[in-house]
Amino acid sequence: MTELGARWDGSGTSFSVFCTGERVELCLLDDDGAEQRRIAMSAEQDTWTVAVPGVRPGDRYGFRAYGPFDPSRGLRFDANRLLADPYARAFEPLDEREVHSLVIDAAFDWGDDRPPAVPWSETVLYETHVEGISRTHPAVAPALRGTYAGLASEPLLEHLTGLGVTAVELLPVQQFVTDDRLLDMGLRNYWGYMTLGFLAPHAGYRSAQAPGAQVSEFKAMVKALHAAGLEVILDIVYNHTCEGGPGGPPIAYRGLANEVYYRLDPADRSRYVDTTGTGNMLNVDRPEVLRLIMDSLRYWVQEMHVDGFRFDLAATLARDRGSFDHLASFFDLVYQDPVVRDVKLIAEPWDIGDYQVGRFPRGWAEWNDRYRDDVRDFWRRRGGAAAMGWRLTGSADLYGADRRGPDASVNFVTAHDGKTLHDLVTYSESTTRPTARTTATVPPTTARRTSASRARATTSRSSRRGRGSGATSSQTLLVSQGVPMLLGGDERARTQRGNNNAYCQANEISWYDWTQSAAADELMAFTRRAIALQRAHATLRRRSFLRGDGDVAWFDATGAPMGAERWGDPDHDFVAYLLAGDRADEVDDHDLLVVLNAGLTEAAFAVPGAAGRRFALLLDTGFADGRPAAGAGFDAGATISVAPRNVLVAAAPR
Known about the structure:
The protein is α+β, with helices and mostly antiparallel strands and 654 residues long. Among the domains are: 5-102, Immunoglobulin-like (Sandwich); 545-653, Sandwich (Immunoglobulin-like). The chain is built from 16 helices and 33 strands. The strands form 9 sheets. An 8-stranded parallel β-barrel has the order 12-13-16-19-22-23-24-25. The protein starts with a strand and ends with a strand. 54% of the residues are buried.
């Protein structure tokens, strides 16, 4: 099978593109985007090829596809449009509205680079944005801020490794574009969920201006993160493209094979079926589309050395013949692929029409929005204990039936899509405004996500209480079974000024604030302590669900065993549980007592256990940095006062 894309062999370049049209021409461009040559391509089964001597890395190119323009048949060929290469390994911007495909030299010295291969049970994810994390960092060289090199700089590596996370989950870095509507408003696509090229790193995150430099800079970033022990997970968007609805211009896919790449409305093939809210959806019923997805995934693993993927609106990828199928062809291809099946695979398990949390096959982890909602509800005293019990123990109600374990649940309280943790516990309403700095215009992608995942807001206005609520929520995250995911910047109380939809805020609203302050330092210290506690105790990182045969015991606010009445009480705002130490762990053999009081009053809690047993207090959210006084602890049988809206974690040898 012919490899698609542009391949330089040292003396010239071979070009191949999939197109269902009648004729295709390769267009070679100069640095200003003007056409220099048009070269006819030859076809074999809709794959068009040509080899051109003398074309080198850094040269720009595109295609013109000839054929009928007949939307009623799903055909949208237009030879007046210069089309991008879906398989381009890099793109070069001409301006904010036009990018060109680019020939690259793929050579790179990986040296002794090796994937960190962190087990799921030891993984702590850190969701971040390549530009936002370093854009204002004072210790990062100005020329590197907001770039791949900035993320890989020593100050950022020290921050991430010092925090204790094991993987960065990067918002989209595949080449994306900004739609004209935003550009006309003086805004740009910041999050990046409008993909143009599935095999190309985004050019806007490079520091050097040489054409194609983004490829080597991305590789250098991965190499540096790996050397620091950090995995690289990419947030990828295979459910739709940047071309929008049928009224939009052909940029690549629409002009090459509209009737193949997109799922068309059977009743009116001039229209698209759309479960993504963006105007189109890729048609995974077609082998050509599945090939594009799998070729892209293998490329990022083999050539770019990434360690896994988070699939945006992953339910769309499993829509065989239009509806979700947990035995879909896409899952079969991933399962059988010797490269892709062995990396971390994370699903956002919904789209507009399908909410599929808990239904993805074995080998997949899922963003667990039920965890987010139930934890938020518990701490704002609207949820009760029963739902909280499921979430704290890995959500066996969602993932236990198909023999998956707690590692299937990616637990989060906040993510890029919504408010930051600081804003969640500070603002009672969103502060989006229709201005260039804070826009109320909600993109379809964000509108459907908010609807599908049922995001909720907090009602707390007090800044003091806000800090406490943030600490208790994040700590909850790190004493729960499952894979914790932190939203980057939450560890420093990052604020978006209440904006819960910053998809187009490429400015200080979205960038991290690295200004030194006592409050930020305290929260950083607290987060480090909480992560260290989670990583130090294997009983918080079990690979199988708790069985209730002595591995966990539950208690109410008085210290009495939890009964059915308490579990069923929606107003019960106190949960305590004792986790038996993991006897298979030779390093840690401690039992852990976790106490969560979401109430507004103190609780007099009788510490469980045999007389004479001593619990050492490891963490107390009543302290700004979570660190209790030296030697703090309590004896089994003693009655202790648990402050309102507080979390305690204590340990005792088995």
